Sequence to fold (430 residues):
Amino acid sequence: MNAALKALAGDAKLDVLMRDIAHQAREAARVLALAPPAQKNRALAAMAKAVRRSREAILAANAEDIAEAKSGGATPAFLDRLSLNAARVEAMAEGLDVIRKLKDPVGTVMGSWRRPNGMRIERVRVPLGVIGVIYESRPNVTADAGALCLKAGNAAILRGGSESFRSCRAIHAALVEGLAEAGLPQAAITLVPTRDREAVGMMLAGLDGVLDVIVPRGGKGLVERVQKEARVPVFAHLEGVCHVYVDKKAKLPMAKKIVLNAKMRRTGVCGAAETLLVDRAGADKFLKPLVTMLLDAGCEIRGDAAVQAVDRRVKPASEADWSTEYLDAILTAGVVNGVDDAIGHIERYGSHHTDAIVTEDKKAADKFLREVDSAIVLHNASTQFADGGEFGFGAEIGIATGRMHARGPVGVEQLTSFKYRIRGTGQTRP
Fold:
């Protein structure tokens, strides 16, 4: 897959391309909004088969992306996010199968009631329309986002990162095969066919009002730009500064298992723990075993005075460290005075993404779950469960930490809006 990856020549030519993509996506959205569930499911089944059939082509494309990223000095964490292997390609296909088996949200009656004048009112789920997804490094987002939008009856315009351009293109080709096999328009899932960064700006401007919502998936720089410049609604989280708080009544074996998984399973995902908090009343029991375990696993720890005292390998934490999303094998650790202090620390330094408590004290757990103002809060479980697939959504188009419309993993239901259907018998308003 050595096709030229140059951007289109000239802003005028790119403008024509993007307007054409937008026009076709809007037409496709109308078709998808009315498509029966069986037809969408046929497309998803065919996509999964095409992804499996195209595994070698996808991996070959990804190998080229990896080689280019390495030559550019990419970090190990970045390469992990970019990398595909046979298992990850199969996971993409399995995700398509799971999404296909989900209940179709379009047309679902969310509520109904009868007014005193006899009118029957229903609130019914409908697609959002055309969704723009702008993402970096993770090529699997191509399949996840495309499939979720399709299931919810939306057209998708996908703009993958320049570093994963070849991989995204190979995956998108398999999705297009599935659309064609089911008789759905290819513009239902469009991959912007250029690395030109001006395409992102055009999407943020809304493509002449075609885009109904934008979802950014990437680093802080991308998300900040989208939230600052977008002229359409945005589903996004800026950072995943996730915490694990180990309470004095935790069980040490469970705490070790959860903390190690939350930080080190995959350090580059947004649900990776970035801060460990340990109850001062349990510090003698928990602090040294947890810190030693992480250091021995290759994790750099930046800690407060209490944490530095248990191991000479711990580096001092700066004020900025407490609010840093490392996306790497680095963790900030500190001691707090019980659950109230932990909640206060998370409110001050956290990003309202995902936070966990480890404890056998139900009262403390309930307080943490009730008072921590994050999209996802967990009791006795790893923060790495912050994932739409783990929620039973099949996949996610992103995790939203705002408070409007969608929060947490954005799955098929969150990719719908609603309208009201009213059935009357000739009523007029006095």
Remarks:
- Confidence is low (pLDDT under 50) at residues 1-9.
